[in-house]
Design a protein that fits this description.
The complex is a heterodimer of chains A (about 160) and B (about 500). With about 160 residues, chain A is an all-alpha fold. Chain A folds into two domains: about 60 residues; about 80 residues, no CATH class. Chain A is built from six helices and no strands. The longest helix of chain A is centred in the middle third of the chain and has 40 residues. Chain B has one domain. Helices cover about 75% and strands about 0% of the residues of chain B. Chain B has a two-stranded antiparallel sheet with strand order 1-2. In chain B, helix 10 crosses helix 11. Classes of the chains: A mainly alpha (about 160), B mainly alpha (about 500).
Amino acid sequence: MTDGGARMDRRTRTDRVLGVALLLLGAVVAWESRKFVVGFPADPVGPRALPLFAAALLAVVGLRVLFRPERDPRWPDGASRIRLGLATGALFAYPVLLPVIGFIVTTGTVVLCLSVLFGGPVLRSSLAAFLFAGGLHLLFVHALGVPLPVGTVFTAPLGGG
Amino acid sequence: MESFLHLIDGFAVALRPLNVGFALGGVLVGTVVGLLPGIGPINAIAILIPLIFAAGIPPESALILLAGIYYGSQYGNSISTILLNVPGTTSSVVTAIDGYALTQQGRAGPALATAAVASFVGGTLAIFGLVLFAPILSSWALRFGPAEYFALMVFAFAALSSFAGSSLAKAFAATGLGLLLASVGLDPNSAVPRFTFGELRLFDGLDFVVVTIGLFAVSEVLLLLEGSRAGEQVHRVVGRVLMTAKELASSTWGMMRGGLVGFVVGVLPGAGGTIAAFVAYGLEQRVTDREGTFGKGDLRGVAVPEAASNAAATGAMIPLLTLGIPGSATTAVLLGALMGLNVTPGPLLIERSPEIFWGLAASMYLGNLFLLLLNLPLVGVFIRILTLPKWFLIPGVAGMSFVAVYAVNSSVFDLFLMVGFGLLGYGLRKVGVPLAPVILGLVLGPLMERNLRRALALSDGDWAVLVASPLSISIWLVTALGLLVPAVLWFRRRRRRVPS
């Protein structure tokens, strides 16, 4: 037990950060909830109760997690951190690209990127990704009647603006 | 018996060609998604909800399909558990013990057959219980007022939180997050905007499909990418997927006992399949394991927990349908789907929409029969699906998630939200915060708030109304007990561990 303290500090950093984050979240929520007031005699509870309860719960468990932390999880190392970063980028790129280059190209491209990140062979991945995107388009637009964006690139008049 | 007359009407609904197709499609989809690591029933149901809305499917047919996915996934899960030793959900952890041992002994065939028969026995027993007890509970629940409902919802949160994840504190953190997410948007009573940051697109609140797909499906893609282990070795199934009459006879009573235990545990919110499987396995081991073969590849060790977890899955439909109280993440997603279809589960459901309740019950008989008849011959196909590479499957899940979320409101903003919730879900799962209470909070939070307000409006702001009836007092007592028991057990375990 001699080096117990030091060892614990190193291994429980995640939960200490989590505890502080929950505590802060609780505080912010409680502070924001202060604005939710209505003079409404028929509603003695008001719009504040639910968020205030959530805030109290978050703060209490935040303290508990802070002072009784569990051991750290294994966080991703170098290579998988890069892959995760790239995947997150591809996921966020989807809503950015969708209105511009349309459903089929966006879905095909993003699914292809993810396939390659999962170690798929490029040629077969592209085939699978674009067939998949085309199939989804058929299903949603033609079978279910859900309109999907065509993409402003394809609909804007040439040279127009 | 009146119930059984209604059930005949239910079969008239369930036997419509569309509904038979949906029951069959549901259990097949369920088996496949239960089988594959990283998809699971929650994602499948959440992704299908926008499709169902878009296609304008009638509510009883939609429920037949979604419920089929829910109970079908239990069996699919047992396939990957037995063959790969990868329990997709915690409820199949118990099956893994004897199931994988049998596979290693080259007896995967009988193990899979036993699991299929046990699922059928457990499921069918529990539907019998559903038909018998749901109407009784319903008529009893008619006496519930807003105060009782509020107490019941607190109980559901407490129960789910005490069984979810490794740490009670983190499960409560998840509940707090879920309630916080539930309060986003215009307050329905006073139209005060809460946590909308002036963003008009948040005034309607967070759509639970967007949050669910983000938290579960997108985070799963990230987790799988991070793990990206080399593919697990899929054992070849030697011989036919069958068992001998002797093997069947040895486990028949175990299946019945497992089904019974599973049903009772399943009705309680929060406990669900995992506890059911553990309790049933433990009991069976004490009662019948004279040779000490449990844990070393005993077919009964597969039969009992499989029957129990399937019966629990069906048992969990009772509080969902008669009280509107889901006890797990999957049933919470089912509740969200029902509300989206303008069906309000509760004591009036059976009376007002008999075609939904009885149609569902009858379709579950059919669905369980389909599972039994199809899964034995199709096991080979399922094993082929299991060997599909991740690069092919998982990005497809992401693609489906995008299109499903977009179809909800045709909104790019929702897609950003979904990816954001995906990152949040990844973080929460890494730090050990369970996701089930978040979804329960999101779905149940608004109902809980509404009932609290109604109770206090009726009592002119007197909080004593919450403990005014014997019924609500007993619910509070059970809740307190439910929170104390795990804590006591935890302390005892800790005390026992310290000296060693």
